[in-house]
Amino acid sequence: MNLDQATPEQLQQWEAELANQYQSLQDQSLNLDLTRGKPSAEQLNLSDALDGILDGDYRAADGTDVRNYGGLDGIQEAKQFAADVLQVNTSEVLVGGNSSLTLMFQTVLFAHEFGLQGADSAWKTQGKVKFLCPVPGYDRHFTVCEQLGIDMVTVPMLSTGPDMDQVEAMIKADPQIVGMWCVPKYSNPTGVVYSDETVERIAQLANIANPYFRVFWDNAYAVHDLVENPPELANIMDACRKHNTEDSVLQFASTSKITHAGSGVCFMAASPANLAGFQQVLASCTIGPDKVNQLRHARLLPDMTALRAHMKKHAAIIQPRFNSVLENLSSAFDGTGLGTWETPVGGYFISFDTLPGCAQAVVKLAADAGVKLTPAGATFPYGKDPQDRNIRLAPTVPTVEEVDQAMKVFEVCVKLASVRSKLA
Ligand code: PLP
């Protein structure tokens, strides 16, 4: 199917054939869902040993009774876990409650209202401020900015990470840019891992940016590999140390997609100066995090060997679902020019770019045939994809058979929407 060289008659004929196929899919009254970027019950079961694991022993390694108040930055063994995942020193880590999104929201809020390096550093003193948002990206990052009245400016994601030529040019030209969102490994939703060069360039942004510029390095999928010998993400903190820019990067992650998504442990890594600024405000919010849960996690996953073995079990569950999506995309669209996508080897998402102007139509067609897809536009600030192209596919929750069925529907919807857009 080559739409560019097709005659109007050919297009009409394809439209009729696809509409027929679509009708027979509709007749099946399917009820499938590729929207949910969360672990399946089978994955959650892998961590059920958390329940009762302390067995009455509430003492952390240093003797702390974790049931009591205190320990604003977390217990030592949870810090070690976080430091291992993010490959930083334990002195650069703070371990919090169950959600890294909460930590990110708090960090943006604190930096805006109070400053991470004293009142003069508060972004609000500078009037309107902006964040750079690589797109497509994670919708909840954008919601944080929207909620706090921070403007968003977009920059395209490439297969190496954000387009760094554009990032540097925009940051140089606009001192109102005080932040940038990054999901550096298996990015949500494109699945790419930032290249070494991208990491190196991001570590140097502070040299051309607003003095209180911060990169929000959300490494949510740091250990979520689906293959042996996965791609390695360069160490951003090491790069920052080399360029003397340690204060410019704040890293985040959690066990949400390692253990129980709703009751995991989150953490951040930052320079001592940033951590001190953050904790000073955090101390007004809480006397300390849920250390009982931190200890439960440390007992379940005492070291990187245990964590790697655990993540292999997740991979065994997720990989067939990813394979189904990728094989279906390849067999339906390779060489057709009807869409583009990356081939992630980890994370939770595959993202598909339709021809311009087709994403909303595809999502609507799929919904009407019983397949729920993430709303088109969700991967852009304010829910607006200017080219109406991007669709995020999240295959972890349905069974492999369901993913396969849903992808067959997706194929017909993409083809039908594409042909119709040419006829319009
Ligand atoms: N960051 C990214 C990139 C995500 O995709 C998600 C969840 O989908 C989160 C953060 C949420 O993390 P948490 O559960 O730790 O709040």
UniProtKB/TrEMBL annotation:
Pfam families: Asp_aminotransf. Keywords: Aminotransferase, Transferase. Gene3D superfamilies: Aspartate Aminotransferase, domain 1 (3.90.1150.10), Type I PLP-dependent aspartate aminotransferase-like (Major domain) (3.40.640.10). CDD domains: AAT_like. One of its GO terms (molecular function) is L-aspartate:2-oxoglutarate aminotransferase activity. The keyword Transcription does not apply. The keyword Oxidoreductase does not apply. It comes from the Bacteria. InterPro entries: AspAT_Ic, PyrdxlP-dep_Trfase, PyrdxlP-dep_Trfase_major, PyrdxlP-dep_Trfase_small. Coiled coil: none annotated. Transmembrane segments: none annotated. This is Aminotransferase class I/II-fold pyridoxal phosphate-dependent enzyme. It comes from Pseudomaricurvus hydrocarbonicus.
